[in-house]
Amino acid sequence: MTNTNRFSKASPRIAACLALATMLLVASPSVQAGQITAWAWDPTGIASVALAGVPPIAAINNDDVAGISPNVLLVTQKAYFSIGPVDIEFTVAPSSGVTEYTIIEGVDNGTGIPWSSYRIELGFGVGASFTPSPSGDGLDFDATSFNSPPDFTGSGYFADVSESEDVLVAFDGIFPVGGFPSPEFRFNIDVPDGITSFTIRQQPIGVPEPTTALLTALGLTGIALATHRKKQANL
Ligand SMILES: [Ca+2]
Ligand SMILES: [Ca+2]
Ligand SMILES: [Ca+2]
User: Fold this and answer.
1) What's the CA dihedral at 175, 180, 186, 192 to 10 degrees?
2) Are 192 and 137 a contacting pair, CB within 8 Å?
3) Less Cβ crowding at N or C end of the chain, within 10 Å?
4) Measured in angstroms, how far is the CA atom of residue 193 from the centroid of ligand 1?
């Protein structure tokens, strides 16, 4: 048998293998699609942020999963230098479904001011170009099922959280200066089909400085006393 004949006999098998490989290659992008492919923090903000890598998707199009999603993204540390917003922008590949993620993040208060609450908002763009995510666009904090409650109770800093479609506010407590919650903050987001990127904006709300309140009170008291003495002198 010549080499040519052997090739001719083997070619159907080779062709079948090539067809299977082609099918797998074509199928792979749809399996890998519908997921967050990258994320980055806006370095013009007022914090330093350490992000873990984006892991391979564990459960694509798993909207309405209860509790913690198998798709977990970890913000290793977000260290605030002062009070203000910090934006993290996500790159998204299109898909034919909605994928739910759990975000876990360590937050460090290096602002020198204790925080009375902590606000998280979904939107698009960063910095001055940030625009809030509208209601009903599919990008949300696990609406409408809300079956994956956010948790900001780490270290007892915040006892409650106000949960709505595009805004979370942790409150009822104090996040102290130098604090780092344990366990870390946790919340779920739904990432819809048809967008190429989105942003999570986060901002601590500082407790008003007691010295300012005290000085204001003392100032008002001083004005009242001076007015009283003036009235007494005119009598
Ligand atoms: Ca929305
Ligand atoms: Ca969901
Ligand atoms: Ca859920």
Assistant:
1) 100
2) yes
3) C
4) 13
CA dihedral sign, ordered 149, 154, 159, 161: negative
Of all residues in the chain, the percent with pLDDT exceeding 90 is 67
| Nearest-angstrom CA–CA distance, 220 and 222 | 5
Ligand approaching nearest to the C-alpha of 142: 2
Residue 33 has pLDDT above 70, yes or no: no
Assess contact for 171 and 161: CB atoms under 8 A: yes
Average pLDDT, the chain: 83
> What separation in Å is there between the alpha carbon of 144 and the centre of ligand 1?
11
Q: In what order do the strands lie in the sheet with 99-109?
A: 47-51, 72-80, 99-109, 185-191
Instruction: Report CA torsion sign: 168, 108, 159, 149.
Output: positive
Q: What is the pLDDT of residue 178?
A: 97
In this structure, which ligand is nearest to the CA of 98? 2
Sequence-separated (6 or more) residues with CB below 8 Å from residue 82: 46, 111
Separation of alpha carbons 98 and 103, rounded Å: 16
Q: What pLDDT digit, counting tens, does each position of 123-176 carry? A: 999 999 999 999 999 999 999 999 999 999 999 999 999 999 999 999 999 999
